Amino acid sequence: MQYRTLGRTGLKTSILGIGGFHLLEIGDDEAAALLHRYLDAGGNYVETAPQYGNGESERKVGRVMAERRGECILATKCNERERDAAAATFAGSLRRLQTDHVDALFMHHVQTGEELERILAPDGALRAAEAARDAGQVRFIGISTHGHPQLLIRALEAYPFDLIMTGFNFYDRFNFPLTEEKLLPMALERGVGVVGMKVVGDGFLWRSAEMAFRYAWSLPIHVMVAGMNTPAILEQDIARAEAFTPMDDAERERLFAESPELGNYVCRLCDKCLPCPEGVDIPRIFTLEGWYDRQMWDGVVRDPGDFWMRQVLRFWFTNEERARAAYANMEIRADACTDCGECEPRCPYNLPIVSKLGHAHYKLTVETAIMGR
Ligand code: SF4
Ligand code: SF4
Question: Most C-beta atoms within 10 A of its C-beta, which of 27, 146, 289, 295?
Answer without folding.
Answer: 289
